[in-house]
């Protein structure tokens, strides 16, 4: 049977928009606290920015090539862009409807977003002084005329378009950029038990006449430009990859416009002018009846004194496998250690590197870094290890999208400390998560290995769900040494003992495992696949899953984001179910279970089932061998599949239906895992190795000033596409 017909596939871009719709859907859930609902609006807005910068930018480039190209679902770039525009217009309409609803509810909690002209006389005077003393000095009005061409406006910057009338009646246009260095949301002095807030652009709009003496202002309209941020680097011809990436980052800021967001107004002249200057089409124009760039609400949701409007913060617990252990290396040597973040603390991973840095018996540390936090304790530990005389090799992926600048900074600091820094293989991003510690023990050496599904990032480890495995198994150790030899030197891939590595071997291993389930199903043996990942896009893997379903293999897919597979198609995918969970934590772990005809197998991986992961990235896929750990992971998968609070089930047409408990017991898988982690941790004393602080105190690079609101706010979320 042929499984490659376009009608068997969904478009990946529209599937991603369905994911972002599910994210936004959490803002509509009445059971979620109000400020948490506001966060989901902010996250959906931030997600859309990245989507336009990367995915829409790429489609625009494909459209320019004017070649006959269609995706697995049979859609051309032009058809995709038209469908995207329609879907996004519907999505943002829902965003602003939900925003209005939530802001009205916040007023019952004595929180008010105000227009400056409607403030009390006292606060209007306060705003006037704030404008004159703080805002006005950093504003630069930019005229647009024959001698002043339309200025280049930075990607995602917020601007005010001002139409003016001169003394002689001539019409003019000017642009005022809303300063990104100032707080976007300004809290006013409290009045009558109320907390009032205004948007920076509204304050500028109210006092804008001070910038244009001698002119009459006809209209002021906010607008925002999103630019193509996708870029390619010719690594083959790059003499210095670091310098080439830095050059490309400067190009990114000047990419073509792919979206124009503008406040609703009757200013047709400005809209026509901006469309012409930016060279966009009507489908790229999005009009809003509210503040632009709702991602700023993320900061607002963390304002002090309103804990009752937020979820109780989760404190990661002591890991179940380390409840009774005093020494981390002793624990790993005794048996493999499984960690489940953020329910269990990421601190053992940090301490693994810290202790290795200070241990006189440790000879070498080798580690991959893809995305790390801004003040990474792991990077500091690696630098300390090098200063202590260890052989430290770090594979830094400096082309991790939107983390390039951060990674370049860390790479240089590591080099200064004496680490040997490698930028991976030409043409391949190193996305694998592995750390190898080589230690002298008993007259020989022992290798300790950590592998995981998520980044070595202590910040995201508190909000992303991931699994990690420590092992001192020598076969894994040999594989780890071979893996780093491939990355750092001239070495063909060895025959792996345990792991599979992309781009050579991982795809074949996945196909082999699916094929085995097909054979078991045809032989009447237990045949089941459970696969959890962020995205399922690879056409060949999807076809293999279709073949397995047609053969009778029961397949459960837990796919957070993009899924191009259509479940429930008779004769093709009748035995496949697709679920997506969107909750307080971002589901990031990649877990793969195969029933094996009764000989169960479980794997963890850094890779999603996408062409980029399997073809053009260095990825890891490794088995979980302890029966106890396999059972524990299967329990996690079964709990996720039983969720009836945050789970959505895909229909064969690509839409999703939120699962409801009805008369059944309500099950929120993430909340249940929080409860279990706390219950487990309560059974033991705190091991001494966990008493070290997770993050060392450091000075704020911004001088203590937040970048989004005029109050203390530290929470920041990122949801990668």
Which properties best describe this structure?
Endonuclease, Chain A, 8-stranded mixed sheet, 721 residues, 10-stranded mixed sheet, globular, alpha/beta, 18 helices, polyphosphate kinase like
Structure description:
By secondary structure, this protein is of the alpha/beta class. Among the domains are: 109-238 and 258-280, polyphosphate kinase like (2-Layer Sandwich); 320-493 and 681-690, Endonuclease Chain A (Endonuclease, Chain A), CATH 3.30.870; 502-659, Endonuclease Chain A (Endonuclease, Chain A, 2-Layer Sandwich). 35% of the residues lie in helices and 21% in strands. It has 18 helices and 27 strands. The strands form four sheets. Strands 14, 18, 19, 20, 21, 23, 24, 25, 26 and 27 form a ten-stranded mixed beta sheet that branches. Strand 19 (528-533), helix 15 (539-551) and strand 20 form a beta-alpha-beta unit. The protein is globular and about 90 Å long. 45% of the residues are buried. Residues 233-241 and 687-721 have low confidence and may be disordered.
**Which fold does the CATH topology of the domain at 320-493 and 681-690 refer to?**
Endonuclease, Chain A
Distance between the termini: 33 Å
Overall shape: it is globular
Largest sheet, described in full? Answer: 10 strands, mixed
- Strand segment tally: 27
> How much helix, percentage-wise, in residues?
25-40%
Beta fraction: 15-25%
Low-pLDDT ranges: 233-241, 687-721
| Helix-strand category | alpha/beta
Text of the CATH class of the domain at 320-493 and 681-690:
Alpha Beta
CATH arch. level architecture of the domain at 320-493 and 681-690 = 2-Layer Sandwich
Query: Radius of gyration, Cα only, in angstroms?
Result: 27 Å
Seen as an oligomer or otherwise, the chain set is single chain
CATH superfamily of the domain at 320-493 and 681-690: Endonuclease Chain A
Residue-averaged pLDDT, rounded? Answer: 88
Count of helical stretches: 18
């Amino acid at each position: 049977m042929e499984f490659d017909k376009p009608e068997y596939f969904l478009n990946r871009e529209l599937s991603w928009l369905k994911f972002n719709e599910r994210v936004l859907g959490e803002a509509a859930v009445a059971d979620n606290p109000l400020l948490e609902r506001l966060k989901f609006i902010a996250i959906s807005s931030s997600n859309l920015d990245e989507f336009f910068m990367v995915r829409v930018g790429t489609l625009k480039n494909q459209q320019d090539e004017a070649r006959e190209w269609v995706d697995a679902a049979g859609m051309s770039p032009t058809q995709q862009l038209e469908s995207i525009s329609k879907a996004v217009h519907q999505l943002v309409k829902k965003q602003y409807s939900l925003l209005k609803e939530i802001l009205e509810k916040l007023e019952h909690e004595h929180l008010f977003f105000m227009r400056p002209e409607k403030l009390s006389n006292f606060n209007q005077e306060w705003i006037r002084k704030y404008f004159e003393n703080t805002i006005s000095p950093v504003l630069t009005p930019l005229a647009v005329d024959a001698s002043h061409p339309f200025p280049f406006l930075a990607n995602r910057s917020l601007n005010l378009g001002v139409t003016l009338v001169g003394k002689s009646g001539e019409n003019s246009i000017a642009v005022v950029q809303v300063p990104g260095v100032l707080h976007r949301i300004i809290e006013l002095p409290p009045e009558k038990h109320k907390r009032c807030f205004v948007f920076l652009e509204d304050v500028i709009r109210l006092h804008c006449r001070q910038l244009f003496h001698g002119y009459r202002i006809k209209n002021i309209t906010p607008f925002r430009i999103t630019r193509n941020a996708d870029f390619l680097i010719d690594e083959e011809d790059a003499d210095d990859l670091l310098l080439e990436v830095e050059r490309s980052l400067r190009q990114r800021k000047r990419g073509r416009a792919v979206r124009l967001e503008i406040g609703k107004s009757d200013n047709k002249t400005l809209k026509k002018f901006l469309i012409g200057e930016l060279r966009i089409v009507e489908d790229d124009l999005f009009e809003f009846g509210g503040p632009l760039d709702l991602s700023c609400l993320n900061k607002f949701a963390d304002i002090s004194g309103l804990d009752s409007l937020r979820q109780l913060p989760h404190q990661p617990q002591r890991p179940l496998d380390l409840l009774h252990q005093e020494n981390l290396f002793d624990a790993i040597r005794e048996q493999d250690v499984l960690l489940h973040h953020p329910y269990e603390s990421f601190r053992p991973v940090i301490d693994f590197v810290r202790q290795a840095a200070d241990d006189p018996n440790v000879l070498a540390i080798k580690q991959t870094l893809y995305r790390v936090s801004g003040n990474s304790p792991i990077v500091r530990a690696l630098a300390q290890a090098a200063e202590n005389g260890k052989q430290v090799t770090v594979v830094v992926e400096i082309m991790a999208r939107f983390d390039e600048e951060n990674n370049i900074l860390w790479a240089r600091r590591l080099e200064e400390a004496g680490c040997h820094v490698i930028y991976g293989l030409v043409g391949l991003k190193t996305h694998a998560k592995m750390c190898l510690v080589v230690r002298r023990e008993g007259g020989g050496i022992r290798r300790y290995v950590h592998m995981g599904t998520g980044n070595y990032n202590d910040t995201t480890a508190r909000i992303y769900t991931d699994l990690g495995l420590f092992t001192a198994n020598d076969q894994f150790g040999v594989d780890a040494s071979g893996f780093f030899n491939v990355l750092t030197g001239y070495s063909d891939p060895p025959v792996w003992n345990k792991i599979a590595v992309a781009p050579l071997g991982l795809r074949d291993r996945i196909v082999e495992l699916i094929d085995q389930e097909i054979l078991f199903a045809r032989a009447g043996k237990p045949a089941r696949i459970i696969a959890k990942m962020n995205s399922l896009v690879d056409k060949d893997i999807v076809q293999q899953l279709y073949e397995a379903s047609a053969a009778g293999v029961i397949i459960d897919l837990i796919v957070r984001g993009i899924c191009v597979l259509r479940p429930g198609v008779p004769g093709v995918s009748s035995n496949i179910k697709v679920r997506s969970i969107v909750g307080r934590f971002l589901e990031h772990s990649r877990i793969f279970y195969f029933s094996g005809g009764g000989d169960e197998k479980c794997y963890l991986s850094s890779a999603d089932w996408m062409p980029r992961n399997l073809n053009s990235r260095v990825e890891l896929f490794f088995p979980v061998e302890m029966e106890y750990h396999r059972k524990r992971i299967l329990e996690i998968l079964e709990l996720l599949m039983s969720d009836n609070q945050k789970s959505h089930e895909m229909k064969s047409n690509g839409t999703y239906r939120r699962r409801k408990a009805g008369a059944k017991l309500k099950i929120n898988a993430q909340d249940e895992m929080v409860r279990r982690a706390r219950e487990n941790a309560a059974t033991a004393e705190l091991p001494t190795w966990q008493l070290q602080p997770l993050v060392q105190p450091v000075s704020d690079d911004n001088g203590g000033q937040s970048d989004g609101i005029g109050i203390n706010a530290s929470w920041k979320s990122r949801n990668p596409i």
